Amino acid sequence: MQRINEKIQAGKILVSDGAWGTYLQQKGLSPGECPELWNIEHYDEVLEIAKSYINAGADMIETNSFGGSRFKLEHYGLERRVFEINKAAAEISRKAAGIEKHVLGSVGPTGKIVMTGNVTPEELYEAFKEQSIALEEGGADAIVVETMSDLEEARQAVKAAKENTGCEVICTMTFERTVDNDYKSMMGVSPSQMVDEIIDHGVEIIGANCGNGIEGMIQIVKEIRKVNRTIPVLIHANAGIPVFKDGATVFPETPEQMAGFVNQLIDAGANIIGGCCGTTPDHIRKVVEIVRAV
Question: Residues 106-122, buried b or exposed e (16+ Cβ, 10 A)?
């Protein structure tokens, strides 16, 4: 199978999958329950999510391993099961993807920050190394380090995946609009700073996820392209900005509304487009329709 970068260099616009966390909640994931343990205890439900995105036309799907680091799993007393849980996550997505679609091993933040002194860079590296190796063993083609806000944590995750696997390595950070109408991560990192700081560590695809609906991602991609015109860019947008309605958090953007901004996102320089919180197979199906037409 061609690598993701090879397809992009050949001029293809690719479509990724949609939300996992909100989808698991719809299937019965309870507050305080470990989502990643579902890979072991609710195999069929997790496989159904993965298959739904493949059936919607996605070129790649993630794994149910966002919180699969030892630091996250220790909250559930599962820190000794890192390899088992992450390998199972990749095996499930690999089964759904078959041999023609790509599997992105999801690696999320640990909740630890080096500058506060509660973790060292070396400890982060070892945690990400452990997770990345397990994801590759289960069948991941790429490791997607995602939803990062801290550059040091992102660097250690990229470095660990790059040095210990043969996977392509992707890194996305989460940016929110500031009062000055620009975009920064929770730790004050801009999209251009992300590119400058992460690209030298071997990352092959860069981008943004969460935090914004697809319209907000257009400005972020434009900022990335101001400092680097060639590195592939992946965008996983929320289904709009969340609102609290009738006692629940709702993502209001419809599949048609999301698809309406796809052409602008491609024109800005995005190479891979998918969804994050609140997006569904229906959102991805509409994105696929627009991308295939392009």
Answer: bbbbbebbbeeeebeee
